[in-house]
Design a protein that fits this description.
The protein has 2 domains: about 230 residues, 3-Layer(aba) Sandwich (Aspartate Aminotransferase, domain 2), CATH 3.40.640; about 140 residues, Aspartate Aminotransferase, domain 1 (Alpha-Beta Complex), CATH 3.90.1150.10. About 40% of the residues lie in helices and about 15% in strands. Strand 4, helix 6 and strand 5 form a beta-alpha-beta unit. Bound molecules: pyridoxal-5'-phosphate.
Length: about 375
């Protein structure tokens, strides 16, 4: 690879042992849900302090099942963040409930928990916080709100594997915690997800709901009481996830070291003077990010052509970047339900100004230097 090869914003690192393990599954004669899924669930359970784990085909299905377990139904409201992937609110709509978006904290870019509590009504059934870029919210405050109002919590921890709240790993505590292993996530199996929970009854219901709701009995008995979907994980995918878990202890510190380099370069290049906002440092209060994403907020309203012009210029420097995410309440499906501009000012500004810079374990220090220099010269040139 030459030094000016294209740098994507994310890139999975699948090692040779994992590729061989996938080959073994393919050759085994059993390729859908089976022993590898069971092994994955056991490994994840150990990671999360012995809690129950139910694997799914993707994180979106995981959240939809979690909402059903929480009893979220038509007429209910679920409070969530507008700065998230479309899946978060889509899952709420899929169970017939209403997503209630509240504004974010402009520093953490996560839900403003004071606004969350103010948004609770008699119809609120659950809270659905999102840990953007792998940074948890204030978990003590979150669960205090849930307790005060007797609400279930479905944590959209899709991006937060190996993130922590004080000494505790996200997933090792809490109500219904949903993770994703989609291709860009810190550990991936191409597409997959898992739910972490405590209740035996809810775990068994989740296992039924991921495969049509089918219950087998004896050698030939079969019944469906509550129809489910088709979102079981395959052993092919589980073998990839098992290989990735072997790397987790190396992935998280590597991402943190690269993030730290971004902070040093940001200072050296004077990003604050250019109006480029940085993410919170590794530890904010008790929350410890896993550096799923390194995101800056551009002074987009003062840049000719806005964020798209910066992305185009970076592309011409051979650098990929991403948008995670535009404010969801301004999407057509939510506007149709009455959401509009001006309701959530922090989310709206950050939604049009946030930019994800390259960060992945095989990114090199020299690549980070290239990205930082290119963003600096681009902003200097385009700022008005
Ligand atoms: C990835 C992601 C999801 C959905 O996960 P899939 O596995 O792609 O279905 C949900 N929420 C957030 C915040 C995500 O980043």
């Amino acid at each position: 690879m030459t030094s000016d090869a294209f740098i994507p914003f994310a890139r999975p690192a699948i090692d040779a042992a994992t590729i061989a393990a996938v080959g073994d599954v393919l050759a085994s004669g059993w390729i859908t849900s089976g022993p590898k899924v069971e092994a994955l669930e056991a490994r994840l359970s150990a990671l999360f302090g012995g809690r129950r784990v139910c694997a799914f085909a993707n994180g979106s299905a995981t959240m939809e099942v979690a909402l059903r377990l929480a009893g979220v139904a038509p007429g209910d409201e679920v409070i969530t963040s507008p700065i998230t992937w479309a899946a978060t609110a889509n899952a709420v709509l899929a169970v017939g409930a209403r997503p209630v978006f509240v504004d974010i904290d402009p520093v953490t870019r996560n839900l403003d928990l004071a606004a969350v509590e103010a948004a609770v009504t008699s119809r609120t059934r659950a809270l659905l916080p999102v840990y953007l870029a792998g940074l948890p919210v204030d978990m003590d405050w979150l669960y205090a709100i849930a307790r005060r109002h007797a609400l279930r919590v479905i944590e959209d921890a899709a991006q937060a594997i190996d993130a922590r709240w004080n000494a505790k790993r996200i997933g090792a505590f809490g109500d219904l915690v949903s993770f994703s292993f989609q291709a860009n996530k810190n550990i991936t199996c191409a597409e997959g997800g898992c739910l972490v929970l405590d209740s035996v009854a809810e775990t068994e219901r989740a296992q039924r709901l991921r495969l049509q709701g089918v219950v087998r009995s004896g050698l030939d008995g079969m019944d469906v009481e509550e129809p489910g979907g088709k979102c079981n994980l395959s052993d092919v995918h589980a073998a990839i996830a098992l290989g990735q878990l072997d790397q987790l202890a190396a992935i998280t510190p590597r991402r943190a070291a690269l993030a730290e380099l971004y902070f040093e370069l940001a200072e050296a290049h004077g990003w604050a003077d250019l109006g480029i906002e940085l993410p919170p440092r590794t530890r904010t209060h008790g929350a410890i990010t896993n550096w799923h994403l390194f995101q800056v907020v551009l002074p987009a309203d003062r840049i000719a052509g806005g964020r798209a012009a910066v992305m185009q210029a970076l592309r011409e420097h051979g650098i990929g970047s991403g948008v995670h995410y535009p404010a969801l309440h301004l999407f057509t499906c939510h506007r149709r339900r009455g959401w509009h501009e001006g309701q959530l000012p922090h989310a709206e500004r950050i939604g049009r100004s946030i930019l994800t810079l390259p960060l992945f374990p095989t990114l090199r220090e020299g690549d980070v230097e290239r990205v930082a220099a290119a963003l600096t010269t681009t902003c200097q040139r385009l700022l008005q």
